[in-house]
């Protein structure tokens, strides 16, 4: 017989991934009572099927690639990777898909964990049916935070069900390298997994519907990654669309049928074709919202039209990255605590403690391919579409001494997007080995709206990759000088 348990908390958090954990932690720091509801593993997608296992797969790949380009290490790095060791390390980084440590953390902050599918049942009310048969009714005095993340968005294809296609989860948790892997997509998951599994022994075919890779980034980023993947042995095909998948009886090889009739034979196929919100089974209809959709939120992450419901992380579609979900969680947790205490929020303060500004102005992302790609803020095309008067400043990373010392034959590129009216950076993109560690300096410059003339006095250490900042700023100053000379000539004429 199902036993009903009714409990009241200040805050109920749906989803115990990094976003939900941070909302819970922030609320507990403010002295609020918190319930956390999780239907799968505490720690969420990032810990078990995304950030942690994917980077554990990629790190040995990148380290070997760098070693092969480093004099004195080339012979040592010439052989194949120890695939079994890489997968053991990946398993350890994913905690062997056990969440004991994360559960202990939730308990350590004084939050109550409920396992099971949580669903809204009207304003401020959440019901949870536990695996033990208990029916919990949780009432939130101040806020319910939906932090349930996103899931792979699969295309509607004939044969999809029987093909047993991989999603990002299977790609990061597979226990062996398939002989042939077809990857459908050209975004971050697609290029990272193509990089990893090719190096781990798979023959990879990358099938991209668009004209290039990483379409949301500067075009040169995708070009560098495409060239590197091709050199590594990946068959990169752009401008192709998948029409169907065929796998007889759900066993054996899978045939990827392309529009036009061409076929790609593979042992596994990975569909890396985007993300969808995990909001389809949350009872949103009980509070007047559309099930399965993204949640529209204000700058404090509160759902538009509500005074108690928050949508934090992937579910609001502002920025589908773990670090941004955690950033939003800090904003939301502080806003919930302030409202609970009756403290007025300065919601008009663009850079205030309760405004998720960076999701618009300074969103950083690193793609862990070989070469790495790091970007923050707006691309040149995005800035122009937004109506800014801008200039792109480009430099080849081989122009700095640190590049040649980092690896022999270094190849890479950097771009700053400068607002010509305010003389601040709107965006920056770096491509090349090891550039992920360059990105935070660019993020500070963009988020802090540091004047370009002031950046001139931030002297990069020699000989490091950071010297590219000096080269970029020198190029920008030269362009400004040329502009002034042209203006004087026009005035004299």
What this model shows, in words?
A hairpin with a 7-residue loop joins strand 11 (242-246) and strand 12 (254-258). Strands 1, 2, 3, 4, 5, 6 and 16 form a seven-stranded mixed beta sheet that branches. Strands 17-18-21-20-19 form a five-stranded antiparallel beta sheet, with helices on both faces. It has three domains: 3-43 and 99-151 and 277-358, FAD/NAD(P)-binding domain (3-Layer(bba) Sandwich), CATH 3.50.50; 153-273, 3-Layer(bba) Sandwich (FAD/NAD(P)-binding domain); 371-492, Enolase-like, domain 1, CATH 3.30.390. The protein contains 16 helices and 21 strands. With 493 residues, the protein is of the alpha/beta class. The model has no long low-confidence stretch (mean pLDDT 95). Helix 1 (18-29) packs parallel to helix 10 (322-340), helix 3 (51-68) runs antiparallel to helix 4 (83-93) and helix 3 (51-68) packs across helix 8. The chain has helices at residues 18-29, 44-49, 51-68, 83-93, 100-108, 160-163, 168-173, 188-199, 219-232, 322-340, 358-361, 380-385, 401-406, 439-447, 452-455, 468-492, and strands spanning 3-14, 34-38, 112-115, 117-120, 125-129, 134-146, 150-152, 180-184, 203-208, 235-238, 242-246, 254-258, 263-266, 268-271, 275-277, 309-311, 364-367, 372-377, 390-396, 413-419, 424-432. It is globular and about 80 Å long.
């Amino acid at each position: 017989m199902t036993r009903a348990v009714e409990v009241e908390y200040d805050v109920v958090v749906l989803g115990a991934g990094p976003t939900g954990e941070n909302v819970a932690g922030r609320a507990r720091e403010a002295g609020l009572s918190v319930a956390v509801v999780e239907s799968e593993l505490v720690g969420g997608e990032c810990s078990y099927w995304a950030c942690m296992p994917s980077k554990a797969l990629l790190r040995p790949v990148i380290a070997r690639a760098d070693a092969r380009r480093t004099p004195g290490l080339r012979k040592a790095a010439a052989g194949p990777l120890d695939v079994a060791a890489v997968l053991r390390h990946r398993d350890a980084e994913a905690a062997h898909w056990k969440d004991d440590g994360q559960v202990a953390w939730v308990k350590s902050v004084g939050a109550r964990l409920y396992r099971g599918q949580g669903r809204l049942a009207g304003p401020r009310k959440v019901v949870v049916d536990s695996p033990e048969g208990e029916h919990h009714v949780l009432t939130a005095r101040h806020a319910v935070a939906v932090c349930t993340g996103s899931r792979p968005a699969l295309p509607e294809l004939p044969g999809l069900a029987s093909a047993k296609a991989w999603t990002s989860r299977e790609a990061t948790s597979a226990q062996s390298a398939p002989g042939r892997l077809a990857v459908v997509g050209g975004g971050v998951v697609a290029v990272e997994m193509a990089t990893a599994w090719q190096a781990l022994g798979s023959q990879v075919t990358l099938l991209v519907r668009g004209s290039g890779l990483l379409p949301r980034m500067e075009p040169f980023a995708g070009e560098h990654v495409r060239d590197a993947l091709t050199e590594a042995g990946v068959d990169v095909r752009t401008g192709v669309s998948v029409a169907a998948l065929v796998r007889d009886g759900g066993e054996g090889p899978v045939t990827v049928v392309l529009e036009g009739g061409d076929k790609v034979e593979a042992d596994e196929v990975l569909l890396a074709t985007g993300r969808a919100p995990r909001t389809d089974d949350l009872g949103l209809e009980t509070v007047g919202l559309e099930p399965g959709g993204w949640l529209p939120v204000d700058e404090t992450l509160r759902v538009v039209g509500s005074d108690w419901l928050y949508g934090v992380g992937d579910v609001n579609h502002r920025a589908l990255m773990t670090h941004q979900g955690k950033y939003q969680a800090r904003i939301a947790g502080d806003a919930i605590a302030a409202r609970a205490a009756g403290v007025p929020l300065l919601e008009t303060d663009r850079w205030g403690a309760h405004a998720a500004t960076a999701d618009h102005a300074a969103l950083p992302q690193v793609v862990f391919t070989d070469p790495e790609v790091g970007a923050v803020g707006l691309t040149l095309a995005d800035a122009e579409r937004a109506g800014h008067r801008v200039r792109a400043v480009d430099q080849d990373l081989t122009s700095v001494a640190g590049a040649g010392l980092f690896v022999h034959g270094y190849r890479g590129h950097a771009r700053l997007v400068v607002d010509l009216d305010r003389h601040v950076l709107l965006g920056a993109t770096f491509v090349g080995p090891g550039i992920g560690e360059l990105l935070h300096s660019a993020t500070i410059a963009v988020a802090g709206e540091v004047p370009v003339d002031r950046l001139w006095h931030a002297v990069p250490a020699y000989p490091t990759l950071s010297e590219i900042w000096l080269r970029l700023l020198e190029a920008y100053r030269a362009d400004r000088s040329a502009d002034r000379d042209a203006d004087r000539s026009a005035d004299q004429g």
